[in-house]
Amino acid sequence: xxxxxxxxxxxxxxxxxxxxxxxxxxxxxxxxxxxxxxxxxxxxxxxxxxxxxxxxxxxxxxxxxxxxxxxxxxxxxxxxxxxxxxxxxxxxxxxxxxxxxxxxxxxxxxxxxxxxxxxxxxxxxxxxxxxxxxxxxxxxxxxxxxxxxxxxxxxxxxxxxxxxxxxxxxxxxxxxxxxxxxxxxxxxxxxxxxxx
Length: 196
Prior knowledge:
By secondary structure, the protein is an all-beta fold. It is built from no helices and twelve strands. It has strands at about 25-30, 35-40, 50-55, 60-65, 70, 120-125, 130-135, 140, 160, 165-170, 175, 180.
């Protein structure tokens, strides 16, 4: 065993691993007859600090760049909240789909801190094109909405909701809760389709 002891109050290296050549500066942790963990600076890869099983390269499990970017080869299991101070969470695998999954309810919330008293929308985009937007009181979709049920809220008596956000007002419209009846003087432009 090696025991390094000092009573110096200033900051300074107690153990220094230095490579004056073109190789790496690393420390190996070995269990005889089992895996070897290697940690240190990879001189051939922008001086990243890496952790790996055996040699670096295809065996590395985690690397930290000099700019502070952390790359992890496997899953990251977080036992508590994961707080991201940047403005993006990016999935860069071009050959597989990306998933955000929850074992129970999944909440997506914007402006949770309400720092300026105004609500912020949630956008859904593909290839930079906005497909849907969720705001405090309205949801906007770029194309068709395919659903087995569509249940508008805040319906006013004797008004039929139109899909441009307005309402069709006619005194001859009767809504019984299970049936909407249009009076004989109601003019309908285009197709009118009813399904059960």
